[in-house]
Amino acid sequence: MPMTHPIGVFDSGVGGLSVLQEIRRALPGEDLLYVADSGHAPYGDKSRQFIEDRSLAISEFLVSKNAKAIVVACNTATGAAITTLRAKFSVPIIAMEPAVKPAVANTRSGIIAVLATSRTLASDNFVQLFARYGAEVEIVGQACPGLVEQVEAGDLSGYKTKSLLEHYVQPLLERNADIIVLGCTHYPFLAPLIQEIAGPTVAVIDSALAVARELRRRLEEECLLADEHSAGAECFWTSGTLKSAQPLFSQLWKVEVGVCVLPKSRPVRSV
Ligand code: DGL
Fold first, then answer.
1. pLDDT value, residue 271
2. Residue 119: which domain range?
3. 71 CA → ligand 1 middle, Å
């Protein structure tokens, strides 16, 4: 596999761009392919089978574009599909894991909160995290229906987004949580507002940097790291409408970008 080949990254929507930002910082020479499955977002209220089928179809698309590694920049897809993806594809597949480990190491109150989709909180991966660390500290999982939709709509600070966040974060503060883990890749785009609501004594953390570092480590291990002397490029696809994707990607990526329509895939398995 040539090291000049690109890295594929996908999410249920634009949330994974928060991970892509860290990947770009950590790996300046890599070409990056990003697929937002915005036409099917949110994944949080879909069946496990549906999410697995979409993850397979998108990964197949990325491999058809010569991806040398795939980053599942979606906690919900990680929980639903990571085992199947790793069994099916031979390229390295990097997954999300909510940043519970550093939160457990740094909490002073002994109470940490995890904001995620209900599907992530119910996943085997999260149940295992809970079992590993739940004896050391209190871990409060908070499902946040509606937040992914707000980010998909580009509303990062409006009235409805703020009210939803207050509704989810206030009870965590009342329980004395001093670290809030963002266990969904859409939520880092809401981090400034979450921090404002939580106040300065609460740390708001996510795992994008850890994932970018793990990706770099895996590429080095497999001798797949691209030459860093020339800057890599990004290509973006969406399964949603271009009319909304174009301004949204540019807003979140902070430069004007072009977005392509994701070709319709043949169903990998009937749903
Ligand atoms: N960004 C996805 C995640 O990390 C959001 C899931 C959804 O679409 O519900 O879980």
1. 40
2. 100-206
3. 14
